[in-house]
Design goal:
The two termini are 20 Å apart. Helices cover 50% and strands 11% of the residues. Strands 3-4-2-1-5-6 form a six-stranded parallel beta sheet, with helices on both faces. The chain contains ten helices and six strands, in the order αβαβαβαβαβαααβαα.
Length: 209
């Protein structure tokens, strides 16, 4: 929790005069790596939109007070985020969905955040990342029955997600990788611009010291 808060505080200091008030942070992952993200965002006065495919992970973060609300509707999530931004009120919103599907759709809708990162377990495509085009249950079954195909599908989806992240970055978004190797996975799957945005350690942590 402390590390996530400090990273977002560093982002706020460098880019937004010390606060994320009125700023939208888009990220994904509410599991063990990413569970602190929504609370860390609101503690920095920002609005968090966190994509998560596992409903149980969303429910756990709601129960423990790390997340305020959730929806299955992208349109509803966007409206809640826009309203909170306009009111400059801290808010955390969980969106049940797959980042490899949500992020490209946000680009199409021209819903561009102010800050963009990711804390899915993309470093482990077999066990930590869900491929697009499958329900969670379908993906779990594919992992069990055909792990090689699962990894191929997961890496393809990682590439799609990172491509959308780079497109957002090119529109002025402050984007960074949060140490989950997502850029390398996308690069290995053929997306040569995957390293267009920096890693958080080099960009925000090292300068603190």
């Amino acid at each position: 929790m402390q590390g996530t808060y400090e990273t977002l505080a560093a982002v706020a200091r460098e880019h937004f005069q010390g606060s994320l008030k009125g700023k939208l942070v888009l990220t994904a992952g509410l599991g063990e790596m990413g569970g602190a993200q929504p609370l860390a965002t609101t503690m920095n006065e920002g609005v968090a939109l966190v994509v998560e495919i596992n409903k149980k992970a969303i429910e756990r973060r709601l129960k423990h007070g790390y997340l305020e609300t959730w929806t299955e509707s992208l349109n509803d999530a966007v409206e809640m985020a826009k309203q909170a931004k306009e009111e400059k009120s801290p808010k955390s919103i969980g969106l049940l969905g797959n980042a490899a599907e949500v992020h490209p759709e946000l680009v199409k809708k021209e819903v561009i955040p102010d800050v963009l990162t990711d804390q899915t377990a993309a470093h482990d495509p077999l066990n930590g990342y869900y491929p697009a085009g499958f329900s969670k249950e379908e993906a779990d079954e594919l992992r069990e029955n055909d792990p090689k195909k699962y990894v191929r599908e997961a890496k393809k989806s990682i590439r799609v997600q990172v491509k959308a992240m780079v497109e957002m970055m090119q529109r002025g978004v402050v984007a960074f990788e949060y140490g989950n190797n997502i850029r390398q996975q996308a690069y290995d799957d053929g997306f040569k611009e995957a390293f267009a945005f920096p890693g958080f350690v080099k960009r925000y942590i090292r300068p603190m010291f």
